[in-house]
Write a structure and sequence with these properties.
Distance between the termini: 33 Å
Number of helices: 7
Strand content: 25-35%
Strand order of the largest sheet: 2-1-4-3-5-10-11-6-9
Structural class: alpha+beta
Length: 325
């Protein structure tokens, strides 16, 4: 059994949640949609979470799950006879980098259609964290592997935004979950402009089929398209009909593409399919980014949670406003 990467402090004891258990539920998530303020710390490469402060906790971040989280559903119903979930696995740890340019736009990438997990979804660059890898280093490595971008030392700052409980497949009626992660979203603020960064992007075609930059206005509309609600049938009048993206063709050459804005406002369907859309976790991260900018997104059914800032570092995740290292 692999070493547990996520630990929970429950009644003062550190425990590793099993694959089939909802982390939000174990931390006391109620019937609402969240998010729930969660105390965090790092201990020997493991992410420790608790609903209250503990020795070594160093940040308080919002934790959220989608309203259709399969692990929450499994907590509330009898297991189907013969339905087996992994018994020798815990919850994995992932990191995603929301890269902001100096002119306040963020980078999203579209996962290739041939990937076995979350194909055709728009997400920030990210992935698993190595056993001996610091979380920021893991995020920057994933950013470089997927987009070719290596940020110069001393030319960016960063801060942890929030935590997302992720499952794949995302809905129970798509099939039993095969993957269970806690994703830490990091906001990395480059001192370079979107144009400067884009000039250096070289997407990895085995993982990325397209990329785009979102400004706050469109990001607010995407963040407000909450999963669990109906997809909008008509675009708000103040939104452009399309968003400029860069797509890799079959020859792996990059070409501009006008992507319909309505594609970004799709919600997670009730039946399994591979339609292009923005992931539910990405919408959560965009909401947190807008709050960080001081731009509150449009109201949604989600219960508001005030994100605490300047709460001290999350070692070795200390928000670095200077060196970028």
């Amino acid at each position: 059994m692999a070493a547990a990467r996520v630990l929970l402090l429950l009644s003062g004891r550190a425990e590793s949640p099993s694959f089939a258990q909802s982390v939000c539920g174990l931390l006391g998530a109620g019937p609402g949609l969240g998010p729930w303020p969660t105390h965090c710390g790092l201990k020997r490469g493991r992410l420790v979470l608790s609903d209250g402060p503990f020795p070594g906790s160093s940040a308080r971040l919002p934790l959220q799950r989608p309203p259709f989280c399969p692990f929450a559903a499994l907590d509330q119903q009898l297991r189907t006879p013969g339905a087996e979930l992994p018994s020798n696995r815990g919850v994995d740890l992932g990191v995603a980098v929301l890269l902001q340019s100096s002119d306040q736009s963020v980078l999203l990438t579209r996962r290739t259609r041939t990937l076995s997990v979350s194909p055709n979804l728009w997400v920030p660059p990210g992935g698993h964290v190595g056993l001996d890898e610091e979380l920021l280093d893991g995020g920057l490595r994933e950013l470089q592997e997927e987009t070719g971008l290596q940020l110069p030392h001393g030319q960016f700052s960063w801060v942890p935004l929030g935590l997302w409980e992720s499952a794949y497949p995302p809905r129970l009626n798509w099939g039993l979950p095969r993957y269970h992660h806690i994703i830490l979203y990091l906001l990395v603020i480059s001192w370079e402009s979107q144009q400067q960064l884009q000039a250096r992007i070289q997407p990895n075609p085995s993982e990325v089929s397209a990329f785009m930059w979102l400004g706050p206005e469109i990001a607010a509309a995407v963040a407000a398209a909450e999963d669990g609600t109906e997809t909008l049938t008509h675009l708000p009048r103040d939104l452009p009909p399309s968003v400029l993206t860069v797509e890799l063709g079959e020859d792996e050459r990059a070409r501009p593409l006008a992507l319909p804005t309505s594609t970004l406002l799709r919600t997670t369907p009730t039946k399994a399919e591979g339609n292009e859309r923005v992931s539910a976790g990405t919408k959560f991260a965009l909401r947190l980014w807008l709050q960080h900018l001081g731009r509150s997104p449009p109201p949604t059914p989600t219960r508001a949670c005030k994100q605490e800032r300047n709460l001290g570092p999350l070692p070795p995740l200390a928000p670095n406003q200077g060196s970028g290292e």
